[in-house]
Amino acid sequence: MRLTPRFVWAVLVFGAMGCIQSIRCKPRSFRESVGVLEVNSSIDSNPTSIDESSSVVLRYRTPHFRAAAHVLVPPVAGKETWTVGWIQACSHMEFYNKYGDKGMSSWELPDLRDGKIQAISDSDGVNYPWYGNTTETRTIVGPTKKDTKFIVSMNDNFYPSVTWGVPVSDSNVPQLTSIRRDQSFTTWLVAINQGTGEMLVLQTIRWRMQLHIEIDTNKPLGQRSRLREPIAQEQPQILGKNEPIPPNALVKPNANDAQVLMWRPKNGEPIVVIPPKY
């Protein structure tokens, strides 16, 4: 449930009146008192842009996914430290670059691909389990005497490079004919007690990024590529019921360190082009 400022104020006044009438009334816990006043999430309306300025690689930039939450934390009575912020995990990834009748390269997450895990962390690789530690998180150190209001926000997009030539060849002869990408993510607004590890899921968002780029290598550089679909991405879903966070979404490795670049020839065995970092 989203709490309006007026509703939150009413709850706090009612709670204070209750304490006057009861000597044994205890301060409300963080779990009971933290409120999400507003959550916004969207994917920018601009289409994926394509950059053919390099004779070695094609680059593309997808529109940004954005999420922001306005959070209210009433006074924290105890000596507790809580961090509120965004955690994100990838739950599905297809990323195929086709090179005519030669074969295709693909970025893959082996454990996710093989169904060994439900999702993999999309942390920045430093501040596990958080997506980042600038605008993405806020830490409250108790005890505090006043309400704490703040906004935590994040954004995400893709800006990869794909070789024009077959990645296992020394040749730069352009043979790239299409790029397809389809990734799904779950993003959680979470509060974590730094002392006890207690975790509260405050909001859950699902989103997806898709694209299909068609390439004609017979055309001159700068005129080869065309975005086929989608021109506008599906907008994120802010779920009415929160989903639990899979264990792998909270720990190493993150998706960037676990991914592997494969070359899958039309005839022959797959080849590891770039192994995972982790």
TrEMBL record:
<dbReference type="InterPro" id="IPR029638">
    <property type="entry name" value="FAM78"/>
</dbReference>
<feature type="signal peptide">
    <location>
        <begin position="1"/>
        <end position="25"/>
    </location>
</feature>
<protein>
    <recommendedName>
        <fullName>Protein FAM78A</fullName>
    </recommendedName>
</protein>
<keyword id="KW-0732">Signal</keyword>
